[in-house]
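Protein modeling request. Please complete all fields; requests missing the sequence field cannot be processed.
Requester role: graduate student
Desired output: 3D structure, token encoding
Chains: 1
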Amino acid sequence: PGLTDDPDNVAGVAKFVAPMKNVEWVEVLPFHQMGAFKWKDLGLDYQLAGTPPASPELVSRVLGQFRDAGCNAR
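Delivered output (74 residues):
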């Protein structure tokens, strides 16, 4: 959330992908923190630690944008 989900960015990606005949669907994968422990285990700084998970409303909006552009989104 807040990195690649800007409405204009999503619209641009959807417009780019929609005419591609070889793309069967777009899989919208909501951001989560499930893998954060791996960064710690590797001794690396996890720069997305403060990023909240995607809300259902955000996911719904992004799915709708892809579908409105003609993409099979799930």
